[in-house]
Write a structure and sequence with these properties.
Layout (H helix, E strand, L loop, with lengths): L1 H27 L9 H29 L12
InterPro entries: Uncharacterised_YqzF
Organism: Halobacillus locisalis
Pfam family, one: DUF2627
């Protein structure tokens, strides 16, 4: 079960790291041919970073709620 949880967290982490690479390449002018413009490459990088971090944060929050480790504002109202 821990291996599955690790894989669930590693894949969005890799996507977020790739997003950071896309942002860096867009800032320094290294163009990837799958994007039509440098701005699209930067926007895709930002979306990858935000999406990856949001998934990891949501996964950790869900796990902590399940184990009753959250306080006050993050508690479930159910």
């Amino acid at each position: 079960m821990r291996l599955i949880a690790l894989l669930i967290l590693v894949i969005p982490g890799i996507v977020a790291v790739y997003g950071i690479k896309l942002i860096r390449d867009a800032l320094f002018g290294e163009f990837h041919p799958i994007f039509f413009h440098m701005v699209l490459q930067g926007i895709a990088g930002v979306l990858f970073v935000v999406g990856g971090l949001a998934f990891i944060g949501g996964f950790i929050l869900h796990r902590d709620r399940k184990r009753n480790l959250t306080k006050g504002r993050f508690k479930n109202e159910d």
